[in-house]
């Protein structure tokens, strides 16, 4: 197995008297697609917040590409190539859909503000390349049918999630953390999302996926970790996790969303 790109060592996080994460160990190899599932309140989003610098853990360390992330703010972690989406999409509302997708790619731009303001040829070439890349990403996530002037407030909740994924991928990350990207998506949109996730390793992108649609997780992930009450209760291949008695008892046996199967 490849060396881990992301590694969590003994991570614990407490809110008041609630232990949201309890000595969590997790590693994701380079160019792997890993899943993280569990009931509502299991600690999945808290784990994402710890990894990306929105929370400082009470205990433990997070390593990315061999570097410890402890104490680094979110923007520095993103600059290292570790980026995320959120449960609620956060579009840039003053920009068009296309410009939202372009915004991520400008992180790698080389033209300075002088070139951009005065329309120098190098800046125009760079913007054209970024526009082309943004259109390709919108096509991949199934938003290519939208006119260039379409704005985020015209999109459905599912389309906003797909736009956020396109914008994140435009940053050319080493690793992306996807927080419930399929929530609100139609069946066809979920299928397009699955294709996007499955294509990430070929682009050199590692992925950690939090998702309540366990069938999507089992389809696209090589390894799945299950959290319950902040603790890892199972880890393994999708087939192994699907049949694990502890997982069936705490999660899968209650329906895919962690609710009682009888409603």
Verbal overview:
This protein has 263 residues and is an alpha/beta fold. The protein has a single domain, classed as P-loop containing nucleotide triphosphate hydrolases (Rossmann fold). The chain contains 10 helices and 10 strands. The protein has helices at residues 44-51, 74-79, 97-105, 113-117, 121-140, 157-169, 187-199, 214-220, 238-242, 245-250; strands at residues 4-15, 18-29, 33-37, 59-64, 67-68, 82-84, 175-179, 206-210, 223-228, 231-236. Helix 3 crosses helix 5 and helix 5 (121-140) packs across helix 6. The protein is globular. Mean pLDDT is 87; it is low at 109-118 and 255-263.
Portion of residues in beta strands equals 15-25%
Query: In the CATH hierarchy, what is the superfamily?
Result: P-loop containing nucleotide triphosphate hydrolases
Total helices: the number is 10
Unreliable sequence segments:
109-118, 255-263
Please tell me the overall pLDDT.
87
**Global morphology:** globular
What is the CATH C level class, in words?
Alpha Beta
Using DSSP, what is the number of strands? 10
Oligomer: single chain
User: Might you state the CATH topology name?
Assistant: Rossmann fold
Structural class: alpha/beta
Report Rg: 19 Å
Helical percentage: 25-40%
